[in-house]
Amino acid sequence: MTRQDEIVKERLRKIKELEKLKINPYPYFFDKKTNSFELQEKYKKLKPGSETETKVKTAGRIMTIRDIGKLIFADLQDSSGRIQIQLQKSKTPEKQIEFFKKFVDSGDFIGVEGMIIKTKRGELSVLADKIEMLSKSILPLPEKWHGLQDKEERYRKRYLDLIMNPEVKETFKKRARIIDSIREFLKEKGFLEVDTPYLQTVYGGAEARPFETHLNALNMKIFLSISPELHLKRLIVGGIDKVFTIARNFRNEGVDKWHNPEFTMMEIYEAYADYNSMMDLFESIYENACKKVFGTTKIEYQGKTLDFKTPWKRMTMAEAIKKYAKINVLKMSEKELKNFAEKNNVEYKEDNWGMLVAGIFEHFCEEQIIQPTFITDHPKETTPLCKVHRKDLRLIERFEPFCMGTELGNAYSELNNPIIQKQLLEEQQQKLKKGNKEANPYDSDFINSIEVGLPPTGGLGLGIDRMIMLLTNQPSIRDVILFPFMKSEN
Length: 490
Known about the structure:
The strands form four sheets. Strands 6, 10, 11, 14, 15, 16, 17, 18 and 19 form a nine-stranded mixed beta sheet that branches. Strands 1-2-3-5-4 form a five-stranded mixed barrel. The two termini are 23 Å apart. It folds into two domains: 3-141, CATH 2.40.50.140; 164-325 and 365-479, Bira Bifunctional Protein, Domain 2 (BirA Bifunctional Protein, domain 2), CATH 3.30.930.10. It has helices at 3-20, 36-42, 94-103, 151-156, 158-164, 166-188, 229-237, 275-294, 317-324, 334-343, 353-364, 418-433, 444-453, 464-472, and strands at 51-67, 71-78, 81-88, 109-118, 124-135, 192-193, 199-200, 212-215, 220-224, 242-250, 262-271, 298-301, 304-307, 313-316, 373-376, 398-403, 406-407, 409-413, 457-463. The protein is of the alpha+beta class and 490 residues long. A hairpin with a 2-residue loop joins strand 16 and strand 17.
């Protein structure tokens, strides 16, 4: 029998003994009056060695127990922090001490009532006069010093990660505050938050391979949403001029430090705007979140100081390539680009001028961009949903913000010409039929909607998870998703 088996056996025995004594080890309710943070704040100026006449009632999980004879100390942890529990032979009823010694283990949830004191060493404590079992744990917590260190195990068993590593909880509290700041900012500007469907008969809005499933009730194949874009544009057609959603996207693609098959994306659309408007909006969202949550636009990330103060640097894709690859792609033919790409082992998706330019940018430039920077004016071959550039017909009015070598989002002056849009989606459909699994399928209802009339529109997508990574200094997307996708243990 392993050590863990012995612990489980002993705890199961305690549960049976509690039940024999007519004590429910899993009661229905406890009237918790205050949490540990509130107590620590209220009594932080209490002098060491002091006692109060204040009686409190709190609850939480027992993390550690130290029995030194006449005194028992225990650390009680709740969602707000920790506070020490103390049992003294001269001041805690003997029955309560016996109950604690006999039945309480680390990992158990207990309720406690008692007076607030501060030990001679300056530790704020609840001097217990009543203990109540609230939930008897069966499995032991990981050891304090050698416990939950393995990253894979922490992601897989996030509940243990949150218990043993309280700083993880702080990351997700900051995540919530950052998202709240975005919502408040956009609503103050008149944007309406909406929901779009996750289950779709036709997916679209991004170059990605979808997840497929089957709807039994209607006996039909459906897809998990890869993007809310096409539904949000329908709402602009319908007369909602400013709209956004914070949605889950599902893309059947690789997993790495920046990618999870299920992730959170915000998309925003504004009538009568263009990609220049979206650049101003994008950087303002970041700046506002930094100031609201952290009080500064300067953020430490993996040993580098990033500054999200507006305005961000702007470079065209051609300018970035000229800086880092030392060539002027705007003066090069497709053949010249292909020769350059093959000479430098550049990977590219399709054999055309635009995709060669995009491949060269990815190969030479992306990792060089550390500070927040907008890369603008991409080749038209890179997306079928964007307006052609008003000054160069080879390009489109698109930008991607980059930071720390990765893109933070995507934005366009949205294509609203239904004749051109129909042609481009038909070309995408043909690519899909020929085996390009990331091409967009033809969406006839979307074409119908913009034939009704889509006004000039600016749209952007902002990766929420990557934003949280940067602003909370987390090295992997799995550190900012509570339940990241994990391979089966079996």
